[in-house]
Specification:
Farnesyl Diphosphate Synthase
């Protein structure tokens, strides 16, 4: 990317972060509303932190497809609510047992384990409530139903939760590349794909071919994101990451660098980026932000 392209992407991402932060704030329960401790935990984990990559992908896809951002605020919030719930539960002692997330104490450390579980549960439900009833979404009932179906499949046993179960069962094992990719297509990739799909579903005149190309793009960047996460777990530090560095190696989890070596993992990330770009070939200049986001994913440092 040129400096101008980079500046344009950074400006777009900052605008999206600010927009979704305000949208999340409006949709979360007030901190003083009973049960206040639960609501404070939900707000603590959701607001003031995170890359907001999934909402940014929703907005970038919407821009490529000329979907108004007012319609996308609900889907962007819904996918982020699911993501935050998954992080809260992922950090629990029964899972990865982590003390740091987004540069601050994890939810169960800041509050307590039971409150963290309930906060995650409530955020999960709020995601689907948002898609079902958010009045700002200018879509038909059938579109709402399709969005709910999309996010449910991406979040459940056939998606993110199933991937997490595979991840936990794989600790200490040596997975081959197809098995490792299958795990991350579910654990990380499913929600990234939903971020793109939700924006596409907001159009009433959807082109099946465009939907297919966008889904392949999202599948590729989902894998690229996880590969880069694994690389950063080896190369970065806790302060930069905002979460505990080296925890995958400490927990003896299968990763791309462990299987391919650091150089091989970096090549694999680049291959996924190139496949993502190829998937957008027919979309023209309106997909330039999606192209730039793919490169950003494999170049990010946290």
């Amino acid at each position: 990317m040129t400096n101008t392209d980079t500046e344009h992407l950074q400006s777009f991402m900052q605008t999206c972060r600010q927009r979704v932060e305000e949208a999340l704030d409006r949709r979360l329960p007030a901190a003083d509303k009973l049960p206040a401790r639960l609501h404070r935990a939900m707000r603590y984990s959701t607001l003031d932190g995170g890359k907001r990559l999934r909402p940014i992908l929703t907005y970038a896809t919407g821009k490529a497809l000329e979907v108004p951002f007012d319609t996308l605020d609900g889907p962007a919030c819904a996918v982020e609510f699911i993501h935050v719930y998954s992080l809260i539960h992922d950090d629990l002692p029964a899972m990865d047992d982590d003390d740091l997330r987004r540069g601050k104490p994890t939810c169960h450390v800041q509050f307590d384990e039971a409150t963290a579980i309930l906060a995650g549960d409530a955020l999960q439900v709020l995601a689907f409530e948002t898609l079902a009833a958010d009045p700002a979404m200018a879509v038909t009932p059938s579109q709402r139903a399709a969005m709910i179906d999309c996010l449910a499949k991406a979040s459940g046993a056939g998606g993110m939760v199933g991937g997490q179960a595979i991840d936990l069962a794989s600790v200490g094992l040596q997975l081959d590349l197809p098995a490792l990719e299958m795990m991350h297509i579910h654990k990380t990739g499913a929600l990234i794909r939903a971020s793109v799909q939700l924006a596409a579903l907001a159009r009433t005149d959807r082109d099946p071919a465009v939907m297919e190309h966008l889904d392949h793009y999202a599948k590729c960047i989902g894998l690229a994101f996880q590969i880069q996460d694994d690389i950063l777990d080896e190369e970065s530090d806790t302060a930069t990451l905002g979460k505990t560095q080296g925890k995958d190696q400490a927990h003896n989890k299968p990763t791309y660098p462990a299987l391919l070596g650091l150089a091989g993992a970096k090549r694999k990330a680049r291959e996924m980026h190139e496949q993502a770009i190829a998937a957008l070939e027919t979309l023209g200049e309106q997909a330039d932000l999606l192209r730039a986001l793919s490169l950003f994913i494999i170049q990010r440092r946290n």
